[in-house]
Automatic annotation (TrEMBL):
It holds the Pfam family RuvA_N. SUPFAM superfamilies: DNA helicase RuvA subunit, C-terminal domain, Nucleic acid-binding proteins, RuvA domain 2-like. NCBIfam families: ruvA. This is Holliday junction branch migration complex subunit RuvA.
Length: 198
């Protein structure tokens, strides 16, 4: 898997950029927003996601890791391929995608070419518990910034298959046990016990 590409921009087209890396020109499919920040002859680093098909290997380039993670996550919804996922990060910021999915905002999602009413509802249904809250500037996650353990335990529970709502309840339930130097592994086990009793 190619996580990122760093090199000199050899060329920019309407839909892609070519970065020269060790004498090899790699073509990366990029959104207009990402392409706008690239200049031929200058160095650039792009987060990348490789999509492998029977007849092709396509490298998609992103301005940052957040955009890349949303691109990869939305493809896990049925009916969403790389083209629609790329259109989504082109039209909406990662936080706009998170907000639209977590607040059942079908209208915002249907602004993306290739996503109709039913497609938007399916994306919301399949990703709502996995998308997470907005994380960008101007967002003040209640206690997460002050207590990083909360976020780690929450992510651990969601990763184990619990819904975001249940995970949040379990984190709140074990919060009194956190103390001054919380041990994430112990708190995660306590949260799992709380969930199994519920």
């Amino acid at each position: 898997m190619i996580a990122f590409v760093r090199g000199q921009v050899a060329g920019v087209t309407l839909t892609s950029a070519v970065l020269e890396v060790g004498g090899v020109g790699l073509e990366l499919m990029c959104t207009p927003g990402t392409l706008a920040g690239l200049r031929a002859g200058q160095g650039a680093t792009l987060a990348t996601s490789m999509v492998v098909r029977e007849d092709s290997l396509t490298l998609f380039g992103f301005a940052d890791e957040d955009e890349k993670s949303i691109f990869e996550l939305v493809q896990t919804a049925s009916g969403v391929g790389p083209k629609v996922a790329q259109a989504m990060v082109a039209v909406l910021s990662p936080d706009d995608v998170r907000r639209a999915i977590s607040s059942d905002d079908v209208k915002t999602l249907t602004r993306v070419p290739g996503i109709g009413q039913k497609g938007a509802q399916r994306i919301i249904l399949e990703l709502k518990d996995r998308i997470g809250p907005p994380v960008g500037p101007g967002v003040t996650p209640a206690a997460a910034s002050a207590e990083p353990w909360r976020d780690q335990v929450h992510q651990g529970l969601v990763g184990l298959g619990w819904s975001a709502k249940d995970a949040e309840k379990a984190v709140d339930a074990v919060a009194p046990d956190a103390g001054d130097a919380p041990d994430v592994a112990t708190l995660l086990r306590a949260a799992l016990r709380a969930l199994s009793k519920a």
